[in-house]
Amino acid sequence: MNTVGALAYVVDDDVSVREGVARLIRSAGMLTKTFASGEEFLASPRPKMPSCLVLDLNLPGLSGLDLQQELARSGAQVPIIFLTGHGDIPTTVRALKSGAINFLTKPFEDEDLLNAIRQCLTSDLEDHVQSDESVCNMIGESAGFHRVVSAIKIVAPTDAAVLIQGETGTGKELVARAIHDQSSRSNRPFIKLNCAAIPATLLESELFGHEKGAFTGAFAQKLGRFERAHQGTLFLDEIGEIPLELQSKLLRALQEQEFERLGGTRTICVDVRVIAATNRDLKAMVNENKFRADLYYRLDVFPLTVPPLRDRREDIPLLIRFFVQKHAERLGRKIERIPTEALQALTNYDWPGNIRELQNVIERSIILTNGPELRVSMPDFCAKSVPIGLSDQPQRVSAANERTLIIEALKETCGQVGGPDGAAARLGFKRTTLQSRMRKYNIARHFQ
Question: What average pLDDT does the chain have?
Answer without folding.
Answer: 81
